Amino acid sequence: MKRIAYLLHRFPGITDTFIKREIRSLQGSGTQVRVISVWKPDDRFTTADILSEWAADTFFVLPCPIWSIGGTVLGEFLRAPGRFCATLWFALSTSRPGFRGFAYQLFYFVEAALAARELRRWTAYHVHNHIGDQGGTVTMLAAKLAGIDYSITFHGWPVFFDAKDARIKEKVLDARFTRSISYFCRSQLMMFSGCDDPQPFKVIHCGLPLEKYQYRPPRLTIERLFCAARLSPEKGLTFAIEALRLLVDRGHDLQLRLAGDGPSKTHLQQFVAALGLTDRVKFIGFLTEAEVIEELQKADLFVLPSFVEGLPVSAMEALAIGVPVIATNIAGTSELIEDGRTGLLIRPSDPIALADAVVKMIADHDFRLRAAAEGRKKVEREFDVEKETEKLREALLQCCGSD
Question: For residue 368, with 0-12 CB atoms within 10 Å meaning exposed, 13-18 middle and 19 or more buried, which class applies?
Answer without folding.
Answer: buried
